[in-house]
Design a protein that fits this description.
The complex is a heterotetramer of chains A (about 110), B (about 425), C (about 1000) and D (about 190). With about 110 residues, chain A is an alpha+beta fold. Chain A contains two helices and six strands, in the order βββαβββα. Chain B has two domains: about 220 residues, FAD/NAD(P)-binding domain, CATH 3.50.50; about 150 residues, D-Amino Acid Oxidase, Chain A, domain 2. Chain B has eleven helices and 18 strands. In chain B, the strands form three sheets. In chain B, strands 1, 2, 8, 9, 10, 11, 17 and 18 form an eight-stranded mixed sheet that branches. In chain B, α2 crosses α10 and α3 crosses α10. Chain B is globular, with a radius of gyration of 21 Å. In chain D, the strands form two sheets. Chain D has a six-stranded antiparallel sheet with strand order 1-2-8-11-10-9. In chain D, strands 4-5-6-3-7 form a five-stranded antiparallel sheet. In chain D, α1 runs antiparallel to α2. The chains are: A alpha+beta (about 110), B alpha/beta (about 425), C alpha+beta (about 1000), D alpha+beta (about 190). Chains B and C meet through α1, α3, α5, α7 and α9 of B and β7, α3, α13, α14 and β34 of C. β16 of chain B pairs antiparallel with β34 of chain C, so a sheet runs across the interface.
């Protein structure tokens, strides 16, 4: 039973106010992209044991989508942040580094 | 292997059962095997068993990081059915179901396959049409199912409320030869048979690396040292992503928690398995008398084997509505398992980007019922190096081609 | 015999006598009794039968760990099986019956299993019952099932109600014994918001029974003071009859409050399930005494020593007249002393420790009790009740030293902390050699959202078993919890005085060298009939992991979840494997701590509020007209409006004929309506839809298709352009929230620089389709300013204005092929508008039609329906809808996916119409059979039906479906399968069956 | 307009708290840049209310304004005044990228009053309803049981709750069941 703070309305929302929306920072591939890129975008997932970045929506709340950085092994939350970004904020990356030095996730570290 | 029988029990009773031998050996790993299977769950053990039985390949190690059968094999709600819609699924699950019919005799281990029948309730017009479609498909697939009316449902399940004010029961898809089995026994029975064929089941041995050369698999590194092999099978539900990562490729899968619960045991009151997909709940009664109840998956990646309580709430709510007597029972125990879910909710049995490395994964919520079929198909794949007809459609290439096997279409869910 | 004592019973109100019945026998007890104490007071020692061997079972404990004392409680809608007598408070009029026997508790046929014990060892059913093959299901399994199970299945609908409650606090303290109280005080003194819960009706736990002095006062007095102090603190809430049922991630606690179990005649909920979010949890859950494993340790009358003491002190009940005490620790001496002081006989204390006990032993000896060190019980004599014990040396193999007559045995094998709640969310355990138990490992707590530990064990739940240690530990836990939530507490632990105890010595089998004939009678799990011999057998056969052993033997799987048996079983397994106990490991603890009612989990969600039922503004009309409803999402839409004596099929036919020939009304309010506005709205909709929407002119409507990124059709509907930068998008009934979320997803997460706002205005409007050749006349009759003539409002146009006195927006669109207006009015005026239309249309015989009429009419016109023609695997191209896919656009959602090899290939099944050769209706879901079989032996198929109806308009069966080759197959006759194995022949035709040229809608 | 009726036509229930459907209410969804001068002026001009802070509701002479999300407000006013206010706000925001739309008829409004009103809501919504956490002026969007809802606390101690019109009966039933006598909790007051 997770709680995540919605970065838009500030509510410490419990899971039943939220909706999980899958892996974060997917780069969309449209017409003109290769089959591999397109398959990667639609289906291939990091699915890590450990640090993960994902999308959520405060669906029973302010309705905004946001990002969360979370550990899939401990459910520790490193932070939530705006949906309108292509990468996690440095502050959250630092927080993760303090706990898991040398972590990587896709192109982030 | 000393055979199990009533006579053997009587013989042993006289000497206080001191003469029973180990069900399986507990060997140290050899340097090299023809085939290594990673994962001693139902699918892994079944794969090894059919490698031996169907292809005579017995120089096999089954490597398990925990205890055999300790993953999803021992955590599911033990439902066995094959009333799937799409041809490839129906073929695979019906193969599995038919193997369950004779499994106790084949393994000389009573897995308590109980073909008590499975009903999937239709509670909306849309579900009625969906299940009628499945019944028509099944008729051509050689899967015996039947769409039955509400009166017949009530006859089969006296404790059901077919006149619920919100979702009256409009009928159901009935598979008479579906049912349940004793999940632990399936793993134990296969393990005993594999061990008897000379295969090594190596428990408490974690794979920490996959070794390859020139794009071909060479072996694995484990907590008990390196072990070489010609062929490698990854059969590790809930950990497929981690193993794939070691082998150097990604999977079209995510791992999420799936939960189940049981009530306290009561005297027999329900003799079939009932699945109610509109309200999201399914229930059967175990031989011990517990009502075994399953629900839905969490929406987020999770490896903790702990799901979110609101799914339990949703499931119990649905079952209290469908079976009013449930309200006065008590929840004895809830638990979770980690399932790998693919992009089309159907499993993957196929080759991987690494040569001679094969994978059986992505069963989502439907792994237990498929164990013998999945093992059969995976053994064929590993032995021949190419998929046979049972697994032909289940390769990962389907995600590139857009050739999906989508079972959710007939109002069904892949439990 | 067990009986009520003249003295004792600190929890009783002897001024209030209560009547109750057991198996029809009328008994009396007192207010304050548990059902267990009241039964014992009436000499009802035997309460039920065990699971497998149907052995007689009596109460063995006094609290929630009780495995044996289970009854069917209550009757009718208040019946409940498997109620523990030890946690059931007695109330006047309580009725209960014993379980798991036939025909009676005293004489049970099933007890024959008992004599076959040797033939039913652990796992025996895995080794037999395999032949003949059908026999498991039809012969053996029914026998196993009949003999298994415990209580009866409830029959009636639950007569009680339940509810949930959300609470948010800083610190939850679970357990209201002296540790919980002390911890709550220490935490509460900091000002932190504390919720203290206790599962029983009483505060203080077992400390008052065990004695000792705290802060210079008798412990009972100290507890009264603590309770008063806590009650006076505004920031502390105390709830009894509330169990900490489970600890979940991120500080989520389930509190199971039994509000009215003890007052079943009260109004209000029976149970309330609290869903608590807290920063810290203190588990002051105490410890549970372990049985000793000796032969016959399950015979009624063999009771935990602490429970014997509880019954005497708390309830004034003696378990027996002559009680033999057997122990491996000092605590059991308290029982002997209490019994002696109550005037009961204690013929001997058998202390397995060669060196014997400490000061409590001296006290016992001083009272004249015989104490035998280094001795144990070889076996207990008796069947349905203890009659004596055979004494032996603990060190030997059980040779009889003497036989002592008694009617009760009080046993103690040491104490195990209740670590369940610590463990639920991942807290790890550590083995304590001195106490021979697992206790929480403070270094490895369960961790919360911030990565820090959020559970602190306190008191005996953390290992300390003596009063001083318990109080000090609990106080420290309270201070630590306060600190963890950012508060300061300076409460110090009070001074404690108590008897010094000698060290316990682990005893896992009594006597130590017991042979197989004794081990087969030494019970570990009383309810599930698991014996020492079973665990040894499991290990011998290779079931070496705890999980294997547990599952192979069913140890710890009973309704008590192994509270008494886990450690003893584990130690037995370790002994057999010759491994240290901590290496063998422990099993995983799962919520709930003790079973909780399903009703409480479901909460208020039953009957009318089982799920939200969405109602349109016109819903009441449909109900008044006795519409036959079908659920569509959470809506219920009228399927048809049958008149008295009319079948549904007849009603549908009548509704269609009326609509096609004159005029009908459809409540279309459920259709989704989403406003999309902004300078980039057109560009955005060009991405969302396969069609080009940006070119739509204000005032016009366009039918559009939406696909997901995987290329599959997910929704359709009419888009109206309101003005230059505003569009109104209609979605399917089930699609409004989904599609609105989908739009927001893309706007918030992908194209966040595009200037577009959306608003879901689905429920702002009641939308009514006025359909049929007389539709215009009906609208015109209402008057108002709106020109709805052919020219004034052309096909695929919309307009705002007054119709009658209603503020209306009319869309000239048609899903039936008839002249048709969909008119939206504010929802608050919806019912009035509907009534006005009905009145105006009376002269034309106007009547409502339902969803089935809608479906049939659209099928007659060859219009596709999302959910029928589509099922999540269909792309627009499959439905010959290339006309709706813009070729000019570089991109739209789903476009890339539709370029993949299998999507672009020609061998996909495509839409066509079908007419049966004999005019009959193709069955729903039928497939078009092909020739031969595939590699898996399945019959080849070449298509399937997607919509099939009897068409009243054409008086024949019509259908749409997907077929290999699609419209290229025009004129072919194909065969659809039926479930009986036969087929029905049908001709491939154009899917537009009615008014192919569209003349009827364009008038 | 005379024919307009609210979803439950003023239904009420009295248990340990009182639950009433308050009848028709004007409501306007406003989306746009909440930080802009134009938006602040539009709100002030139309309702006489200040711009609400995050998760707050502000009451003015012409009605109330609630913070819905970083780019959305809800204006609450008399039912009859909604059209005029929509027009006025649309005009005030002309030239801005904004959306102003009437949603009065899409909603139902309930008042929950009485000393234990907080506990009625706490049975249904996963929200801390304690006086310290939920003061007057707080505006919370959440769920009640299985549907979305928003509620706020008035100065007089009563709560008002908004839900979609289609689930008005469901929400009314939930509130009624939750305020039935015998179900007092005694935790929040």
């Amino acid at each position: 039973m997770l709680t995540l703070q919605c970065p838009y309305c500030g509510v410490e929302a419990e899971e039943t106010e939220l909706h999980a929306e899958g892996e974060a920072h997917l780069k969309r591939f449209g017409p003109g992209s290769s089959d591999d890129d397109f398959e990667g975008y639609l289906f291939m997932r990091e699915n890590p044991k450990g640090v993960h970045f994902e999308r959520w929506r405060h669906s029973n709340g302010c309705g905004k989508f946001f990002h969360a950085a979370r550990c899939t092994m401990t459910l520790e939350v490193f932070g939530t942040y705006s949906a309108q970004t292509l990468e996690p904020p440095q502050e959250i990356k630092d927080k993760i580094s303090a706990k898991y030095p040398g972590w990587t996730w896709r192109e982030f570290a | 292997m000393r055979r199990y029988s009533a006579f053997a029990i009587a013989r042993e009773a006289a000497r206080y059962h001191t003469g029973w031998e180990r069900a399986w050996r507990s060997p140290e790993p050899k340097k090299k095997y023809d085939v290594i299977i990673v994962g001693a769950g139902g699918h892994g053990l079944a794969t090894a068993f059919y490698l031996g039985k169907n292809f005579g390949i017995t120089n096999v190690a089954i490597i398990e990081k925990g205890w055999l059968g300790g993953g999803n094999t021992g955590r599911n709600t033990t439902i066995i059915r094959s009333n799937y819609l799409q041809d490839p699924s129906a073929a695979l699950y019906e193969k599995a179901r038919s193997l369950y019919e004779t499994m106790s005799q084949d393994l000389n281990y009573n897995v308590m396959f109980s073909p008590r029948g499975v009903i999937m309730l239709a509670q909306t017009q849309h579900e009625v049409r969906g299940y009628q479609r499945t019944a028509h498909a099944n008729a051509l697939q050689g899967v015996k199912t039947e769409f039955i009316g509400p009166e017949r449902v009530k006859e089969l399940v006296p404790i059901i409320n077919i006149d619920g004010p919100r979702y009256p029961v409009l009928g159901g898809l009935w598979q008479e030869r579906g049912g349940t089995g004793r999940h632990d026994a399936v793993a134990w029975g296969y393990a005993r048979a594999c061990s008897d064929m000379g295969m090594d089941i190596i428990q408490k041995c974690e794979v920490i690396g996959v070794r390859s050369e020139g794009g071909m698999v060479k072996g694995v590194d484990t907590t008990k040292g390196p072990i070489d092999c010609d062929k490698l099978g990854l059969v590790v539900a809930g950990n497929s992503g981690a193993l794939a990562d070691m082998a150097g490729f990604r999977l079209p899968m995510e791992s999420v928690a799936l939960q189940a619960l049981v009530s306290e045991p009561i005297k027999p009151c329900m003799d079939v398995v009932v699945m109610a997909n509109t309200v999201h709940g399914y229930m059967s009664q175990s031989d011990k008398g517990e009502m075994v109840i399953g629900g839905g998956t969490d929406g987020f990646n999770n490896y903790t084997q702990r799901g979110s309580f609101h799914h339990i709430e949703e499931t119990v709510r649905a079952l209290c509505e469908t079976f009013p007597m449930v309200s006065r029972l008590k929840m004895l125990r809830q638990w979770g398992g980690i399932v790998d879910v693919t992009g089309d909710r159907s499993p993957v049995i196929g080759k991987t980007p690494l040569g001679n490395c094969f994978i059986n994964a992505g069963w989502g919520t439907g792994g237990f019922k498929a164990i013998p079929g999945g093992g059969w198909a995976t053994a064929e794949l590993i032995a021949k190096g190419e998929p046979g007809p049972l697994s032909a459609e289940f390769g990962m290439e389907r995600f590139i081609e857009g050739r999906f096997i989508d079972e959710s279409v007939a109002a069904g869910v892949a439990h | 015999m067990s009986t009520r004592l003249a003295s004792g019973g600190r929890l009783l109100n002897k001024g209030k006598q209560l009547k109750f019945s057991f198996n029809g026998k009328q008994f009396t007890g007192y207010e304050g009794d548990s059902l267990a104490s009241a039964l014992l007071a009436n000499d009802q020692m035997m309460i039920g039968r065990s699971f497998k061997y149907h052995r007689p079972r009596g109460v063995v404990a006094s609290g929630s760990e009780e495995p044996n004392g289970l009854v069917n409680l209550g009757e009718g809608g208040k019946f409940e099986p498997n109620q523990r007598v030890t946690t059931t408070e007695l109330f006047d009029g309580l009725t209960c019956t014993s379980q798991n026997h036939w025909p009676s508790l005293e004489f049970d046929i099933g007890a024959i299993n008992n004599h076959m014990t040797r033939f039913f060892p652990a796992g025996f059913y895995y080794k037999t019952f395999m032949f003949p093959r059908f026999a498991w299901k039809h012969v053996f399994e029914p026998i196993v099932r009949q003999s298994a199970g415990l209580g009866k299945a409830p029959q009636d609908r639950d007569a009680d109600t339940y509810e949930h409650f959300y609470a948010f606090v800083d610190v939850v303290v679970i357990g209201g014994g002296i540790a919980g109280l002390q911890a709550a005080k220490a935490a509460g003194a900091s000002g932190a918001k504390v919720l203290l819960m206790e599962q029983t009706p009483h505060w203080g736990g077992r400390a008052p029974v065990d004695g000792g002095e705290v802060d210079g006062k008798p412990v009972a007095e100290y507890i009264d003071g603590l309770v008063a102090e806590l009650q006076a603190m505004d920031n502390v809430t105390m709830r009894n009859r509330m169990m900490g049922a489970g600890v979940y991630d991120h500080g989520y606690v389930l509190g199971y409050e039994r509000v009215n179990d003890h007052t079943p005649m009260n109004t209000g909920p029976r149970h309330r399930l609290w869903r608590i979010r807290t920063k810290q949890i203190i588990t002051a859950t105490g410890a549970i005494e372990r049985p000793l494993s000796f032969a016959g340790n399950d015979i009624p009358g063999v009771v935990l020593a602490s429970a014997v003491r509880d019954y005497a002190v708390d309830y004034g009940v003696s378990v027996g007249d002559r009680t033999v005490v057997v122990t491996n620790n000092d605590d059991a001496y308290r029982t002997a002393i209490a019994l002696k002081k109550a005037g009961l006989e204690v013929p001997v204390i058998l202390d397995a420790r060669a060196s014997g006990g400490g000061s409590l032993a001296d006290e016992a000896k001083a009272l004249g009790i015989r104490v035998e060190n280094g001795k144990g019980i070889a076996k207990v004599k008796g069947g349905k009740r203890v009659t004596g014990v055979v004494v032996c040396a603990q060190a030997g193999q059980g040779a009889m030293l003497e036989e002592i007559k008694c009617d009760a045995v009080a046993m103690s094998g040491g104490w195990s902390p209740v670590v369940h709640l610590w463990s639920h969310c991942g807290g790890k355990l550590i083995w304590d050699d001195a106490q021979a138990h697992f206790r929480p490992d403070a270094a490895r707590p369960p961790k919360g959202a911030n990565g820090e530990g959020f559970v602190i064990p306190a008191g005996s739940a953390n290992g300390p078993l003596e009063l001083a240690g318990v109080v000090a530990d609990a106080n420290a836990a309270g201070v630590a919890a306060a600190k963890a939530v950012g508060q300061d507490s300076s409460v110090a632990a009070p001074a404690v005085a108590e008897a010094a105890e000698a060290a316990m010595e682990p005893v896992w089998l009594m006597p130590q060298g017991a042979g197989p004939e004794l081990r087969i009678k030494a019970w570990l799990d009383y309810q599930n009939d698991v014996k020492v011999s079973d665990v040894r057998l499991a290990a011998q056969e290779g079931y070496e992991s705890v999980e294997h052993t547990k599952r192979y033997t069913t140890l710890g799987m009973a309704t008590d979840q192994g509270k008494l048996s886990n450690i003893n079983g584990l130690a037995t397994l370790a002994g057999q494997l010759n491994a240290p106990i901590p290496e063998v490991g422990t099993t995983t603890f799962r919520p709930p701590y003790t079973p909780i009612s399903m009703g409480s989990i479901a909460g208020e969600a039953r009957d009318a509020v089982f799920q939200p039922l969405r109602r349109t503004p016109i819903h009441a009309y449909h109900e008044d007209e006795k519409a036959f409803f079908e659920p569509v999402g959470h809506w219920r839409r009228p399927y048809c409006f049958p008149k008295a004596g009319e079948s549904h099929a007849d009603a549908v036919k009548r509704e269609i004929n009326q609509t096609r020939n004159s005029v009908g009304l459809l409540d279309a309010s459920t259709l989704g309506k989403i406003i999309v506005k902004g300078p980039d709205a057109g560009k955005f909709l060009d991405m969302m839809y396969t069609n080009m929407m940006s070119t739509l002119k204000p005032g016009k409507c366009r039918y559009g298709l939406m696909c997901n990124e995987n290329g599959f059709l997910i929704d359709d509907g009419v888009v109206a352009r309101i003005d230059e930068d505003t569009f109104l998008c209609h979605t399917t009934t089930g699609g409004a929230e989904r599609i609105h979320g989908w739009m927001e997803d893309w706007l918030q997460c992908e194209w966040w620089d595009w200037k577009v706002y959306t608003a879901n205005v689905t429920e702002q409007y009641a939308q009514i389709a006025v359909v049929g050749p007389n539709a215009r006349k009906v609208i015109e009759k209402l008057g108002g300013e709106m020109d709805v003539s052919k020219e004034g409002l052309a096909f695929m146009e919309w307009k705002d204005g007054k119709i009658g006195e209603f503020d209306a927006r009319a869309y000239r669109i048609s899903f039936s092929g008839e002249l048709s207006y969909e008119i939206a009015v504010p929802a608050s005026q919806g019912r009035a508008f509907w009534d006005a239309l009905m009145e105006a249309g009376a002269e034309f015989g106007i009547m409502p039609y339902g969803t089935e009429g809608l479906h049939v009419m659209r099928a007659e016109k060859g219009f596709i329906m999302i959910g029928d023609e589509t099922d999540g695997t269909v792309i627009p191209q499959d439905l010959n809808m290339q006309w709706a896919i813009s070729k000019k656009k570089e991109d739209f959602l789903g476009k890339r996916a539709q370029l993949r090899p299998f999507m672009a290939s020609d061998d996909r099944w495509k839409l066509a119409g079908f007419e049966t050769v004999d005019g009959s209706v193709i069955p729903d879901g039928a497939y078009i059979v092909g020739t031969g079989v595939n590699a898996n032996g399945q019959r080849n198929v070449q298509g399937r039906v997607t919509s099939t109806y009897y068409s009243p308009t054409l008086d024949r069966g019509i259908a749409m479906g997907l077929i290999d080759g699609g419209m290229k197959r025009l004129g072919d006759v194909v065969e659809f399968n039926k479930v009986d194995g036969s087929t029905v022949k049908a001709k491939v035709v154009d899917p537009v069956f009615y008014d192919k040229d569209g003349e009827k809608q364009n008038v | 307009m005379s024919k307009a009726v609210s979803a439950l036509e003023g239904a009420s229930f009295e248990g340990f708290a009182k639950v009433e459907e308050t009848g028709l209410r004007g409501m306007i969804t406003v989306r746009g840049d909440l930080d802009s001068k134009e938006m602040a002026e539009a709100v002030k001009a139309v309702n006489g209310a200040e711009m609400p802070a995050v998760r707050k509701i502000v009451h003015g002479e012409g009605g109330s304004v609630a913070w819905m999300s970083p780019d959305e407000l809800l204006v609450v006013c008399a039912y009859e005044e909604a059209d005029a206010k929509v027009a006025a706000m649309t005009e005030a925001l002309a030239g801005q990228h904004a959306l102003v739309v009437k949603v009065s008829d899409a909603r139902a409004v309930f008042r929950i009053s009485g000393e234990a009103a907080r506990e009625v809501i706490a049975k249904l919504a996963p929200v801390d309803m304690s006086p310290a956490a939920f003061p007057a002026g707080e505006f919370r969007r959440s769920r009640v049981a299985q549907v979305a809802a928003a509620f706020w606390l008035n100065e007089d101690g009563s709560f008002e709750m908004i839900c979609f019109r289609s689930v008005a009966q469901y929400v009314f039933d939930l509130l009624s069941i939750s305020s039935e006598r015998g179900g007092e909790v005694g935790f929040l007051n």
